[in-house]
UniProtKB/TrEMBL annotation, chain B:
Assigned protein family: Belongs to the heme-copper respiratory oxidase family.
Stated name of the protein: Cytochrome c oxidase subunit I
Domain of life: Archaea
Gene Ontology cellular-component annotations: membrane
GO molecular function per UniProt: cytochrome-c oxidase activity; heme binding
Subcellular location, record wording: Membrane
Mode of membrane association: Multi-pass membrane protein
Species whose genome carries this gene: Natrinema limicola JCM 13563
Domain Cytochrome oxidase subunit I profile: start-end pairs: 22-494
Pfam families from the UniProt entry: COX1 (PF00115)
Keyword annotations of the record: Electron transport, Heme, Iron, Membrane, Metal-binding, Respiratory chain, Transmembrane, Transmembrane helix, Transport
CDD domains on file: ba3-like_Oxidase_I
Automatic annotation (TrEMBL), chain C:
Official protein name in the record: Cytochrome c oxidase subunit II
CDD domains: ba3_CcO_II_C (cd13913)
Organism name: Natrinema limicola JCM 13563
Organism ancestry: Archaea, Methanobacteriati, Methanobacteriota, Stenosarchaea group, Halobacteria
Residue ranges of the TM segments: 9-30
Pfam families: COX2
Amino acid sequence: MSSAIEKGVDGKHPTNETDQVRELDHDEYDPIGTAILVGIYFLILVALWIFMYFVEFLGNGPTVTGVLLTVVGLA
Amino acid sequence: MAMRNAYIDQFPKEARVIRAILWSSFLALTIGGTLGLIQGLHRTNVLRFIPSQDYYTVLTAHGVLLVITFTIFFLVGIFTWAVTTSLDRGVKDIRFTWGWYAIMMIGTLLVGVSILGGVVDQIPMNADVLYTFYSPFQAHPAFYVGFVLFVVGTWLAGFDWFRTWWAWKKDNPDERIPLPTFMALTTMLFWYLSSIGVAISILAFLLPWSLGIIDSVNPLLTRTLFWFFGHPVVYFWLMPAYMLWYTMLPKLSGGKLFSDPLARVVFVLFLILSTPVGIHHQYLDPGIAEGFKFIAMTNTMFLLLPSLLTAFTVVASMEHGARQRGGKGYLSWLKALPWRDPAFTGMALAGLMFAAGGFSGMINAGLSINYLVHNSWWVVGHFHLTVGTAAALTFMAASYWFIPQLTGKEIWNRSLGLVQVVLWFIGMTFMSNAMHRAGLFGMPRRTAEPQYQGFDFEPAVGTVAEIDAQVALGAALLTLSVYLFITNMVLTTIGGSTSDAIPDNTYAGTLSGPEDAPVIIDNLKLWTSIAVVLVIIAYSLPLASIIDAGGLFGPGIDPWKPSVVADPSLVLESVRGVMP
Amino acid sequence: MNIHTYEKTWLAVSMVLIVGFIATVTYGAVGPGIAMIDDDGGSIDPDTINDDERFNDPGVTHVGENEYEAAVVAQAWTYTPSEITVPANSTVTFYVTSRDVTHSFTVAGTNVNTMVVPGQISEMTVEFDEPGEYGILCNEYCGAYHHTMEGKLNVVPQDEFDLTELSTDASDEAQLGNQTTINTTVSNDMNYDLETTATLEIGDQQSLEQDVTVPAHGSETVEFAVDTTDLGTGDHDWTVTVDGHEESDTLTVTNATEGGDGDA
């Protein structure tokens, strides 16, 4: 392992140690805030996608259509 | 006082070449940014002091200087840092490193002078062909030669890093590839693969054509070869930003990288999927069957996966830092992040804007919805959030950490740095939201005067004047931000005093380290082979059908030299002349 | 590999998102029937555009009941024709090609948008339900005056639409006592015969009518014989009218003995 990897408070090259008040290792850390943030992002993405595709795009006709529709229309 | 252990202390020779590279990058940013302001004011009709014909020279220079020169110089500088730092060894031969830098510089100068010829009569060259140089536009041969030299320089840079890694591997046969090196190498692998497209386009077609060796090219073929390279290039700009988000942002937040294995998976996915997607830039091109476009869309959509994973891993790493700094609650830990640090704040804001740019990219990736946004100002709004913020703002922010590492000097004014990155965020919010909205009512990109004689645009919300005002204001704030940045960098370099308080040259530790990743993830040969196979699947049939329909050299396509500029009324006469 | 449960969930959610996007686009193709520009238009040598059956006289042609074709040639910095008129409730297939560099053919504010690459023909079928006026613009950089490249698309109510054109061949001058003719060629680009009446009004009194049948995609010349004796000397304005289309000019009748230049 390279010495350049930051070791945290007990490592050889601590940075930001003055601001650090505790150390959390992998097992005691659940990124609940991250889960909330990406969950909100997901909802925004779904809402905007639906708005963009069904309102902005499909509502923006005329649109290029295939021969398929013409055939159906004549039938 | 403990001995200082900054990059310049560990690798003084490499620090010198990286400084030169970053300065080339910053110079391109300053010139390119200034040109952006000229365009922003011109298009919106706020201030027009150049003839509209010259707008396209300015646009070509803005595009090339920012998306090629600024970003890629920064990339080669930062990757050199990443490889040497994480392998803890210098490059094999520093003269070779200076050599590829010199080749890239010569390439840049050739391209720059040939573009400048578009507005300076004394230079008998012209390259008003924009950064995409679609044939049958024909630039001066120097433009193509310069472009090739620049790319060859990057190839040699990649070789420099690979052989540094090979030498390290010999000494450390059982170790996992350190993450920053892994990221640099996987990025270079898809760069080698994708730049073959532009190399063939230029060396087999455009350059011999500009020299008069062949008389015709197939415009759809050279265009397709360009996009074979043209989409991976956007990931090429983005990968250094991703690397900084994975390896620096957790550390600056006061935490550790949440998952080293997933970071590797992300870069492997980019290696595999970056290239077989270029046809999504050609959704509205004739001559390419719909099925090929659908395949390109599917690949593109799956390319969202590594970015979505990155969003989680990077934010979780920041949250880890915030909680180690005492942050509590579901979301109030956000307040515990080091918002006074320009390097942190700039990168975090860049990531936030990338989340927005990611959304408009998802729209761009959609096949049919491309009719709505293709070549509209929406696209310009999109890539100003991606390359123009996710990459550019991350690079500027990271410089507040790197320049002290490379010079041994403290940043001249860190508060000004904070103002600078926030100003970029504000300016881009104005500019990009307005561009996106303008695209939705059909305002085109790449146009000096989007004001037409026969019709007006009809925004559903707001007005054209309001959108123009937001773009002009945004462009002004962004340009001011660039000037504040460059001022800070210049004064740090020439005026700053050497300091012993520069932090050590380290990157983020990990919560889940490489030992948790299966060894197969480090098998670069395997992933490269898969990437090659996917490229063959995505491109062999479209290329074959393009060549079959239009011929390798096209059906007698005459070159169009943009320097031959006529008055439009004369041109209309000539149009009547050729019409039956 | 040690992946946190939250991140595994996010991975699954991301996959749902991706599959959802692809599913939406697939729905767009099979539901509303959106088709992409593809290779159906074929390729063309730009130097042969003037000899091409479709592009040698670009414009709108009637091909089926409510179906039309519109051939458009793009070149720096104009479209030919620069103004396109089609009826509402019609299906129009556009064929667009370029004489020089890459352009686009973009109907502003709609989803009608294609690249126009030299050597290729862009083919796209569009249904126009409602009357309306649209601007056409080029959204691909095509040279120094790219920003001046624009056109117009008019979708007119069906009862205001036809594909009839007039062109007239007539002398400006005739001698008193001689007969002169005003020849009007009526062209019809519909795919059915046009049965109509051509009317000539000249001077104060004369009004001549002729029935004419113009074949589908053809033209017919109507010859009006004008007796100058009835008109007398002087300038006589005339108008030929066919189905609401008009052609006008002036016939000057001179006195034969004065050699045509007397003004007594």
